[in-house]
Amino acid sequence: MNVIIALFIGIRSLDLTTMRIRTFLTLIISITLFIGCSSGSTEHTYLVIKGATVFDGNGGQPIENSEILIRDNAIDCIGEAGDCSVTMGTEVVDAAGKFITPGLIDAHMHFFQTGFFDSRPDAMDLNETYPFTEIAAYQERNPERYYDTYLCSGVTGVYDVGGMSWSVALQEQAEENPKAPHVAAAGPLLTPVPGAPFDLPSDRVLVQLDSEETGVKMVQYMSALGSTGVKFWMIRADDEDYMSRVRAAADEIEKHDNQMIVHATTLEQAKAAVKSGAKLLVHSVQDRLIDEEFINLMKEQGTIYNPTLIVGAGYTVAFRGAADIAPIPITDPNGCVDQRTRELITTASQFKDHPRMSEAFKDRLQAFDPDTGMSSDVMLQNLKRLYEAGIPIVVGTDAGNPGTLHGISIYDEMEMMQEAGIDPNDLIVMATKNGAMAMRREDDFGTLEKDKLANLIILESNPAEDISNMRSLSHVMIKGKLMDVTTVQRH
Ligand SMILES: [Zn+2]
Hints:
Layout: H1 2-16, H2 21-39, E1 46-50, E2 53-54, E3 66-71, E4 74-80, E5 91-94, E6 99-102, E7 104-109, H3 132-141, H4 144-152, E8 155-160, H5 166-176, E9 182-185, E10 189-191, E11 206-208, H6 212-225, E12 230-233, H7 240-255, E13 260-263, H8 267-275, E14 280-282, H9 292-301, E15 304-306, H10 311-322, H11 339-346, H12 359-367, H13 377-388, H14 409-419, H15 424-430, H16 433-438, E16 456-459, E17 473-478, E18 481-484
Helix pairs in contact: 1-2, 6-7, 8-9
Zinc ion binds near residues 108, 161 and 398.
């Protein structure tokens, strides 16, 4: 505002006197400084986006011919044309005929993983070509290329639900970076197994829950670090000893007002997880159709469900790439994927003679049909049942796993969720508001409302007609900064 006031005063002064330009500028600067000092505020920037059809993330009818006024990094006003008082000097973006939703949230990803097997030596050991110690260090030091990938894909918030301790530090780092999505991160996972090849002597992804004390200490440490959630990588529902350790850790999670995340793929595990207090279930129930008891448990606990429909097939797709059966597909018209990832993916077939590629394994890979094999019927049916029961559902890709690339995978995941029978209008809510809720940031973003952070995307086509229209995005706004998506990726 200061500049605008200063200009008005300046122009009036210019009319009254015939000051030389230099004196005029000096006057403006001094008035600005004076007003700035006296009010104690800094200069604000204003931008208004006019004319688009807006889905605010709460569901329901969109606002047609809308007006969104953004002050600095937040929404100052949102409504129909003429609802917001737009002052002189406000930058105007004409978005007539376009569609706007809140920025997307990928509620399940992993910064330590690259999208290929170099970060998953347990699935295929590429240490000879890509030493895992170097990959792990690179992932820690270079999250920015993924920040760009996500923003370019319209994703303005990500939830890293399992990784090394350093992932928790990304929360603050990304928050302070004007060109990064918001990050929530859980850090290392509690698990019944003794560890994995992706654990380093100095930093682990998996921590074996070998006693109640281990679980309690881990929860205390992660909570003190500021982790968003503590994740259990599988639980043993039929092992009473193990479940008592899970319960001890769960109690500690509640004490610290943290949240319990559980990787559960069987109905038995999923029920035990929800009974233990899980707030977020990741991966679908895959072994059988869910029942009323499960739905009621989810309702009682207010548990959020993240189906991750495509990541399983992603492994097969990546193995097929490595076996030189079919290239790993990258659908990326806006150039979102960073150079390093692109090279990793396009050179996958260099591993076609890797010892992992036995003839029997290759036969199985050959038999996979990417048109029909991307998700299982049970997963899709369970998702539909939970959706119809009104259970909160989020979109989470599990990106970083082999074959599930950061950023661009979100469209495949949403399209598969639509195929399960979810109305695209509801999918918008799942991909925005519900994701923010899982990240525990629903007060800050996830919907387009006054005083929330200005994170949004501009689309050419209507996402409520078909969720694949999310692919038509042209611009992303993060923390009030509007960018053409084709210019976002710098790496
Ligand atoms: Zn995961």
